Backbone:
C-alpha cells in the first residue's frame, strides 16, 4: 500500500508539473506573438541562443519560451536571465520554501514585519473583526475606522493576486453587517496618492513593485522596480488591464515606454495621455529604504516583491508583500538579468539544494 501511495503521489506531482509548464508555455507563446507582431520576428540566432541557454545551463529546453519573450523585449539575448517557470519550479522551493507562503495571509503582515508603513486599519479573520492592533472591533465601529481619512477604503482577501480579491468600499452605502460574506483579509485605508501619480491615474492608486533579494551573506538589495497604472474604468490596479513601466533602481526614473498586458509598447498612459519620459517617482529613495529595512526583518523568504505607493506628502505606504511566485518576468525582460549573481542557474543540479529535474520536464 505504501508503494502505491508513493507511485500515486509521484504521478500527481508530475501531472501538476505538466500543467504548470503547459500554462507557462502558452502564456509565453501568446506574448511572443504579440511582441513580434509589433516589432517584427526575432532573429533565428536569438532563438537558438535561448534554446541553448535553457538546455545547457538550466537543464531543460522547456525553459526557453520565456527566454525568447525576454529577448524579444530586450532586442537581444542576455546570459543570466531566469525564466519564469524555472523560477517557480526550481528557484522558489530553494530560496523561499514554505516561508514565502506566509505573505498570502495579509492580516499577518504588519505584525510579522513589525512596521507601521502598512496601510492596514482592520482585519476580518475567521469570523472575527479586529483593529490594526488586534483588539476586538465591533461591527458598529468599523465604519469610523475605515473612513477616518477618506470616503473610500479597500478590502483585500487572503491569497488575492493580480488585483482579484480586492474591493473598494465607499462610506455611502457601506453595511458592516455584510461582513459575513467576505473571506478573511485586511481592510486598508485609501491612500491619497502623490499628485504626480494621480496625473496618470486619478481614479485609482498607482502602485510600485520593488523586488528585493537577500544574498547568501545576508545582504538585502533592490534588483528591479516598476510602476503599475490602472485604467480609467478601474477602481484599482488590475493585471488584466494595467500598464507597467520599468523604474530605474538607482534614480527612480521611469523608462520611456510602458507595456500593456499583451506586452505591446506605449509611451504615455492610454487614458490620461501623461507621458513617461523624464518622469521620476516621487520619494523613490524613501521607498527603497523602506523595503530594504522590511526585508532585513524577514530574510527567510529570500526574494520578495513589495507593492507600495507614495502619498501626497511623499511618504511610502506599503500595501502588501509577495513572497510566493512574485512575478519576475516583466523585470527580467525590461531590466534583467536581475539575478545573475545569485547562482540560481545551478539550483537544478544534483549537487545543489534541490534534486535535478527529470527530463523531459521537472
Residues:
Amino acid at each position: 500500500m505504501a508503494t502505491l501511495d508513493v507511485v500515486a503521489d509521484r504521478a500527481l506531482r508530475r501531472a501538476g508539473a505538466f500543467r504548470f509548464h503547459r500554462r507557462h508555455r502558452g502564456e509565453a507563446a501568446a506574448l511572443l506573438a504579440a511582441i513580434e507582431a509589433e516589432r517584427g520576428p526575432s532573429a533565428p540566432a536569438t532563438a537558438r541562443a535561448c534554446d541553448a541557454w535553457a538546455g545547457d545551463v538550466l537543464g531543460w529546453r522547456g525553459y526557453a519560451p520565456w527566454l525568447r519573450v525576454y529577448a524579444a523585449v530586450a532586442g537581444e539575448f542576455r546570459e543570466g536571465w531566469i525564466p519564469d517557470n524555472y523560477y517557480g519550479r526550481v528557484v522558489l522551493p530553494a530560496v523561499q520554501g514554505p516561508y514565502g507562503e506566509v505573505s498570502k495571509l495579509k492580516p499577518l503582515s504588519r505584525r510579522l514585519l513589525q512596521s507601521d508603513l502598512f496601510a492596514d486599519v482592520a482585519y476580518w479573520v475567521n469570523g472575527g473583526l479586529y483593529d490594526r492592533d488586534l483588539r476586538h472591533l465591533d461591527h458598529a465601529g468599523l465604519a469610523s475606522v475605515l473612513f477616518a481619512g477618506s470616503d473610500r477604503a479597500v478590502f483585500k482577501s487572503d491569497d488575492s493576486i493580480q488585483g482579484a480579491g480586492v474591493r473598494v468600499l465607499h462610506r455611502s452605502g457601506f453595511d458592516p453587517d455584510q461582513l459575513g460574506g467576505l473571506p478573511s483579509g485586511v481592510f486598508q485605508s485609501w491612500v491619497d496618492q502623490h499628485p504626480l501619480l494621480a496625473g496618470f491615474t486619478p481614479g485609482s492608486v498607482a502602485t510600485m513593485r520593488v523586488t528585493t533579494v537577500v544574498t547568501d551573506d545576508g545582504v538585502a538589495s533592490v534588483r528591479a522596480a516598476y510602476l503599475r497604472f490602472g485604467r480609467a474604468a478601474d477602481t484599482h490596479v488590475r493585471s488584466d488591464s494595467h500598464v507597467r513601466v520599468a523604474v530605474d533602481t538607482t534614480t527612480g526614473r521611469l523608462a520611456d515606454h510602458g507595456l500593456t498586458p499583451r506586452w505591446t509598447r506605449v509611451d504615455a498612459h492610454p487614458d490620461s495621455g501623461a507621458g513617461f519620459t523624464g518622469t521620476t517617482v516621487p520619494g523613490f529613495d524613501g521607498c527603497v529604504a523602506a523595503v530594504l529595512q522590511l526585508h532585513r526583518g524577514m530574510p527567510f523568504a529570500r526574494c520578495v516583491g513589495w507593492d507600495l505607493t507614495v502619498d501626497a506628502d511623499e511618504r511610502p505606504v506599503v500595501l502588501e508583500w509577495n513572497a510566493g511566485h512574485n512575478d519576475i518576468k516583466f523585470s527580467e525582460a525590461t531590466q534583467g538579468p536581475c539575478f545573475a549573481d545569485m547562482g540560481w542557474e545551478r539550483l537544478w543540479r544534483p549537487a545543489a539544494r534541490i534534486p535535478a529535474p527529470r527530463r523531459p520536464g521537472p
User: Anything to note?
Assistant: The chain has three domains: 2-96, 98-105+193-323, 120-189. The radius of gyration is 21 Å. Confidence is low (pLDDT under 50) at residues 354-360. DSSP finds nine helices and twelve strands in the chain.
